[in-house]
């Protein structure tokens, strides 16, 4: 009976220690936020492009007839 009480006490002590250390707040740095934003953007190309039809022109992994790129609405 005494061994069971000791085991239960050790388990409760370990669980309370895990709970205490998990409550510690961690600061997120600017670098962390930049990494999160970079992951959210994806891996696509950064230029504007538009692919039309199917043919022999390579358009970022797809075979298309015509590829338009570099257009922008900014002056």
Structure description:
The chain has 75 residues and is of the alpha+beta class. It contains 2 helices and 2 strands. A hairpin with a 2-residue loop joins strand 1 (49-59) and strand 2. The longest helix has 21 residues, at 2-22. The relative contact order is 0.10. The model has no long low-confidence stretch (mean pLDDT 77).
Write out key terms for the chains shown.
75 residues, alpha+beta, two-stranded antiparallel ribbon, 2 helices, 2 strands, 44% helix, 25% strand
SSE topology:
Blueprint: H1 2-22, H2 30-41, E1 49-59, E2 62-69
What is this structure, in a nutshell?
The chain has two helices and two strands; from the N terminus they run H-H-E-E. By secondary structure, it is an alpha+beta fold.
Distance between the termini: 83 Å
Total number of beta strands: 2
Radius of gyration: 28 Å
Q: Oligomeric status of the shown chains?
A: single chain
Put simply, the count of helices is 2
The succession of helices and strands, N to C, reads: HHEE
What percent strand?
A: 25-35%
Report the principal-axis shape: elongated
| Strand numbers in spatial order across the main sheet | 1-2
Query: Describe the biggest sheet?
Result: 2 strands, antiparallel
The percent range for helix content is 40-55%
Unreliable runs: none
Mean pLDDT: 77
Look at the helices and sheets and give the structural class: alpha+beta
């Amino acid at each position: 009976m005494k061994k069971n009480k000791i085991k239960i006490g050790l388990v409760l002590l370990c669980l309370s220690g895990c709970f205490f250390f998990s409550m510690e707040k961690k600061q997120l740095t600017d670098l962390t936020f930049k990494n999160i934003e970079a992951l959210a953007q994806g891996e696509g190309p950064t230029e504007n492009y538009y692919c039309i039809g199917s043919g022999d022109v390579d358009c970022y992994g797809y075979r298309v007839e015509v590829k338009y790129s570099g257009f922008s609405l900014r002056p």
